[in-house]
Amino acid sequence: MIGWHGKGEGVKDRVRIAIVGSGPAGLSAAGRAARLGMSHVLLEKTDHLSDTIFKYQKGKHVMATPSSLVLRSDFDFDAGKREQVLGTWEEQAAAGAITVRYNAEVTRIEGEKGAFVLTLKDGGTLEAEAVILAIGTQGNPNKLRCEGADLPHIQYQLDDPTEYIDEHITVVGTGDAGIENALGLAADPAQGNVVTILNRGAEFARAKEANVKLLTEAQAAGRVIVRNETTPAEVRPGQLVLDTRDGQETIRCDRIIARTGSAPPRKFVEDCGIAFTSPEREAFPVLSPVFETTRPGIHVIGALAGYPLIKHCMNQGYDVVEFLNGNTRLKPADEPILAEKFAALPGSRSVDEWLELLGSRIEIFRDISPLQLRELMLDSGVAAFRKGEAVFERNEIGSSLFAIAEGSVAVEVNKDDPSITVPIAQGSIFGEVGLISGRRRGATIRAAEDLIVVELSRSAALKMMATAPAAAKVVNRISIERQLLQIFGSGLTREDVAELVDGAEVQELRANEVLMKEGDEGADIFIIRRGSMIVEREIGGKPVFLSYLAAGAYVGEMAVIDGSRRSATVRAAIKSEVIRLPGEAFVRLLERKPQLRRKAFEEMERRREINAFVEGRKENFSSVVDMYSQTAQFLVDNGIGEATDVLLIDETLCVGCDNCEKACADSHDGLSRLDREAGTTYAHLHVPTSCRHCEHPHCMADCPPNAIQRGPDGEVFIDETCIGCGNCQRNCPYGVIRMDSVPPKKPSILSWLFLGKGPGPGEPSKDWRKKHAEGAEKPKQAIKCDMCAGIDGGPSCVRACPTGAAIRVSPEAFLSVAKLAEGE
After folding, report:
1. Nearest CA to 820 among 563, 626, 595, 567?
2. Kind plus residue range of the DSSP H or E element containing 214
3. Please, which residues have CB within 8 angstroms of residue 511's CB and are 6 or more apart in sequence?
4. Three-class SS of residue 689?
5. What is the separation of C-alpha 22 from the centre of its chain, rounded to a whole number of angstroms?
6. C-alpha torsion sign, points 283, 286, 290, 292
7. pLDDT digit string (tens) for 451-506?
8. How far is CA 653 from CA 96, 783, 806, in A?
9. Do 63 and 212 lie in a common domain?
10. Are the CB atoms for 532 and 548 separated by under 8 Å?
């Protein structure tokens, strides 16, 4: 074997294999080549092995996941601290007589299979029959994209978290690296750091479950501030301006650690003649099952292949050298796991045949490499259904995504008539509504013929969408198409809305950001996909609230249809998403579909009547309209902007009897779900502390047992699987969730009335609960309003109000100046 060379002395000018990059994948490849006696050189651009691991923060715990995967490598790897892992590899590299050349950065690869020429940065060259690129992506981090992103207190690497003392530090990004950095900075309270971590979404799609659990525990202990649905808007010296779901906010910030992912060094790879799966920046190279690229003789492994986990990388390093050595019978290490998974399906296909079928037939998989598909399938399930069998039933709990590999399904869109169905063909997906919204299944879906589906768990689907831009685009396009068909109705088909879907763009708005301005020209219409909008007009020099638009509504069609200017200003009540549709395509659709045209004109006429009502009375009734506008704005500011059902109390009618609280407690095991006196008031309207049943519930964002669900009527409830972790209570911005243990069962109301037994109506006192508790107190669980689901007559708080002061309403039914017009 060729001996170990610290500086590259003695490295041959021509080798069988040139391995570029000494991370886990490259190191493992070199170890296998050395063991097999194949001439090789490991080229490392720094002066040490495995720069990615080397740059991990000091003391970082390195995970060895997935645990079910067997490790194939001539190097050992077990979970442990960074220093321990690196020390083991350095010892084994020396003992294994690996040929390594440090400070050897490759700048160009020329030639062809069997005769490649690699040019180094120092001008030197070497020849190789085959090249293995194991260069990773860490040297190409995604930079912050906001004003002030070039300021010096932003860093993209954290070496030693113990170096920082008494600083306000913000970590941007909640992948594994960001979470681990935040935990390291907050590990020792004596350092005095105030650590905040920003999560763009409400879930942790890119992070390992173990890291999410540790972050949740740190948040509960007050060591780390976790801010979901928050992004940087502007970096200033000593400050960071944030875009939150409720608007902009400025916090103190002495240092920013940006861990927003990285992308392949695309220019270098493409200059080598290697094609990528798609044009997106984060796409990966096209690879064969033996890791060969579109440039014959050049192979890609590790993170550059889309496999960031260390164990995967090391297995690939081992496998690719075996392939180059002529071992055509070698199967990947995950083969037994996948073979067992596919064994449940009809037919006798091999793992490779199944993966080929899934990758070629299912649209969301077409731009995913076979290697990425293998990893995705480890976290997914497969199932077969006979014709007529239900994949899932209406109102079932479920947030997984299904992809049709063979056959088709029928969606029962009418709950009263199962014969009315809409088909979904082979290659498409279904279940995306549960994935995006967390709602229960909205329809029963049956196999229209013998069926084979892939079921992606929520975490697997979100990870796929986060790491495979092309797949995310497909899911996005299909969800937009189905939303258009649902909103516009009128017997439209996929073909009818194809032009609109092709021209659609998803646009994100921060709270209070203007979507369209009164008086502007309008060329597009918008569908509210997530969040809500406020519609207002300027009267007497100030904005007057006209209406509230919830998710699912559309706006802007008036100016598009009749060519007029925007008649009102529309702005986001909270952080929202809209779908922008090209106006010209919408007009063409109306011309082709008279029924839709009539529907659109009726809606337009209704809005004109409201505008005319306001215009005609702006002088005589300006004070009334102004009071209404202020009241509506107060309600939006207090969470009505993202509610689907909210409890309001008219204080001109409320007599303070507390029957609402007592009835709530008596309907829910003695624990009231509302606090009548708490909350805020404007004029005569009081918003008590009670669940708003948000359109996208914050409480659902991080529930380990998935105990928080949405019912068929929109109610958000917590089932018996709650483990009392308290995440939902911490994530709720309105303080409507409490942690408590269910009290002992009370005697009946008659026993209390006639025999004096029990604490009486409502929630029992703590003294009574303690006195009548049987043994140890029951563990605490999350308690919140469930809209009295399953109780005849609807919410008990409303039914128990003797004066009619308590009402439960959807915001779109309440927040509209049309109510003034109707009441005139």
Report:
1. 626
2. helix 209-220
3. 244, 245, 246, 247, 248, 572, 573, 574, 575, 576
4. strand
5. 33
6. negative
7. 999 999 887 888 888 778 888 889 989 988 888 887 777 678 888 899 999 999 98
8. 84, 28, 9
9. no
10. yes
Residues 662 and 690 both lie in one domain: yes
pLDDT of residue 68 exceeding 70: yes
Same domain, 253 and 268: no
- Residue 116's SS3 state is strand
> 623 phi and psi, to 5 degrees?
-70, -35
Please state the separation of Cα 258 from the chain's center in Å. Answer: 19
Query: For 811, phi and psi rounded to 5 degrees?
Result: -60, -35
Beta carbons within 8 Å of 592's beta carbon, 6+ residues apart: 496
Q: Are residues 720 and 806 in the same domain?
A: yes
Here the CATH number for the domain that contains residue 239 is 3.50.50.60
Query: What pLDDT digit, counting tens, does each position of 380-426 carry?
Result: 999 999 999 999 998 787 778 999 999 999 999 888 888 888 899 99
Are 343 and 355 found together in one domain?
A: yes
Look at the chain and count its residues. Answer: 824
Shared-domain flag, residues 249 and 271 = no
76-105 residue pLDDT tens: 999 999 999 999 999 999 998 899 999 999
Of 564, 595, 630, the residue that ends a domain is 630
Is it the case that residue 27 has pLDDT exceeding 90?
yes
The number of folded domains in the chain is 5
Are residue 462 and residue 345 in the same domain, yes or no? Answer: yes
Kind of pairing between the strands at 239-244 and 231-236: antiparallel
Parallel, antiparallel, or unpaired for β 451-456 and 421-424?
unpaired
Same domain, 66 and 97: yes
Name the residue range of residue 580's domain: 499-630
Secondary structure (H, E, C), 463-518: HHHHHCHHHHHHHHHHHHHHHHHHHHCCCCCHHHHHHHHHHCEEEEECCCCEEECC
What is the CATH classification number for the domain harbouring 525?
Answer: 2.60.120.10
